[in-house]
Amino acid sequence: MDRPDLTGRLIRAVALTFCGLLTAGAALAGTAPKDYPPPIRAAVHSGMKVVRMFPAVSGLTGWVLSRQGQYTMAFTTPDRKTMIIGILMDKAGTDLTSAYGAKFIPKPDYAALFGGLGSTGYIVEGAVSHAKSTLYVFFDPNCIYCHLTWKALQPYERAGLQVRWIPVAFLKPTSAAKAAAIMQAKDPEAAFRDNESRFNKATEDGGIRPLSNPAAASLSRISENGRLMTRFGSNGTPTLVWKDKAGVVRAIYGLPKLSELPAITGLPKQKINDPDLARFE
To answer: I need a surface site. Which of 1, 47, 190, 208 has the fewest CB within 10 A?
Structure first.
């Protein structure tokens, strides 16, 4: 996301986006493109696809729109003249846009996506040869909540967890050059730990020096990683992906509560005394 903070809320207020695998069978209730409301026709003309339409509150019509695998919730007014993109709330303050999204947006196929994690150029930290469990984490070098996740996972790494950190870049202009600096280092794990151990919490800047001329291959890999993260249904970092004890692929985004870490890591609860993490109990 960072975590669902003010930035994340503002992003979602502009457009609630989700990612997944486009399902050709999504119902359009027999509506032909020529019969769409004018704003929806304009969106289609600009390159978006209509995945689904449905009746919404207050006479609105809901629409699931897609562009390059990324989903947006939209609503048209009863007179069909206006399209609304943002958070709909009822009188109780319930986020109806999220509720409709959970019901109508196609869900990512985590199992199908999981195989792609192996080609992300991840950085391995923690247990290596005899890891008791494995966790993938998408991170931005300038992400404060990724940094806090790193701190929270240190005791679990000592207990046998292997973490595979997948670099993405979107938070700041230096993010891509810092991610490339980690990937291109002679010792990527040491470079990654340098970034985190010298993280500036006040300015929310990773500690590694950005490369002045990152390799094109590194930048391409970082971009591909970002697209894979969004296909997991995430719009921010950190995004955590793992297989549970039953072998089911799970994914969440944002810094998890410390009480959730045993289930995520598959390891017994570890003692965490870091004052920076006290509010995440």
So the answer is: 47
